[in-house]
Amino acid sequence: MNHLVAPSILTADFSCLKNEIKKINNSVADWVHIDVMDGVFVPNISFGFHLIETIKKLASKPLDVHLMIVEPHKFLNEFHEAGADVLTVHYEACKHLHRTVQVIKTLGMKPGVSLNPLTPVDLLEEILPELDLVLIMTVNPGYGGQKFIESSYEKIGNLVKLREKTGSKALIEVDGGVNLSNAKKLVEAGVDVLVAGNTVFSSDNPSKTIRALKEVMR
Ligand code: DX5
Ligand code: ZN
Question: Which atom of ligand 1 is nearest to the CA of 10?
C-alpha cells in the first residue's frame, strides 16, 4: 500500500484558514489531521467542535481527528456530528477503552488509539483487531514543531510485529517531528500514515511539500 499523508492544521495560519484548507484540498494529501487539546491531558489548548464543523464544510478530504483530551467517551457523538471520519483517542486517557472503541464504530467512524512516547505497544494486543488505526506519538503530545524521538523506530517495528501476530489491519500512523529527512525511514519501518504540521505549513510551498512527503519512496 502507498502510504498516506495527513497535514496537521495545528500549524496552519488561522487568519486565512479557508485558504490553508484549500491548499490541502488542491494537494495530494489524503486526510486532514486535526488536533484537539484540552489543557488537562496535554499542557496546551487548541480548538473544539465549532472549528471542526467549519473545516468539515471546507475540506474535500476525510478528517482525521486526534483527541488529546481526558474522558473522550463523553464527547464521541459531538465529534461525529462535527464531521470526524477517523477518531483517535489516547490509550492513557481511557478507563474503558473497549467500550469507547465500540461506540466510535457504532457511530460510523473509524476508531484509532494513540500511544504517548513511553506507552508500550504491547498494551494494545487485545484491542488491535478492533482498530482501524494506531497513532504512535513521536513527540510528547501538546505542541507542533518539536523534535522527533529517535527511539520511535523500534516501537514502530514492535507494532508491525504485533499487528502480524494479531491479524489486525490497523494502519500505523506517526505524529510529531515528521520531516523530509525521516519520512522515508519511517515508511520503510512500516508506517502507513505520516502526519506533518510544521514541515508542511512552515514551508514555502505546502502543496509541493505534501507531494514530497507522498513521494519519499520513489
Ligand atoms: C502534537 C500534535 C501533532 C502536531 C504535529 O501533539 O498531535 O499533530 O501538529 O506537529 P509537527 O509535525 O510540527 O511536529
Ligand atoms: Zn496529532
Answer: 9
CATH class of segment(s) 4-214: alpha beta
- In angstroms, the Cα distances linking 169 to 19, 130, 133, 166 are 35, 9, 8, 9
Strand 133-137's sheet: what is its strand order? Answer: 4-7, 193-196, 171-175, 133-137, 110-115, 86-90, 63-68, 32-37
Tell me, in angstroms, the distance from the centre of ligand 2 to residue 161's CA. 24
Tell me: the pLDDT tens digits for 31-90? Answer: 999 999 999 999 999 999 999 999 999 999 999 999 999 999 999 999 999 999 999 999
Can you tell me the distance from the alpha carbon of 24 to that of 26, in angstroms, rounded to the nearest whole number? Answer: 5
Ligand 1 neighbourhood includes 33 CB (under 6 angstroms): yes
Instruction: Kindly tell me if the per-residue pLDDT of 175 is higher than 90.
Output: yes
Residue range 3-38, pLDDT digits in tens: 999 999 999 999 999 999 999 999 999 999 999 999
Q: Where are the domains of the chain?
A: 4-214
Structure confidence at residue 1 as a pLDDT band (50, 70, 90): confident
Amino acid (1-letter code) at residue 75: F
Buried b (16+ CB within 10 A) or exposed e, 69-104: beebbebbeebbebbbbbbbbbbebbeebeebbebb
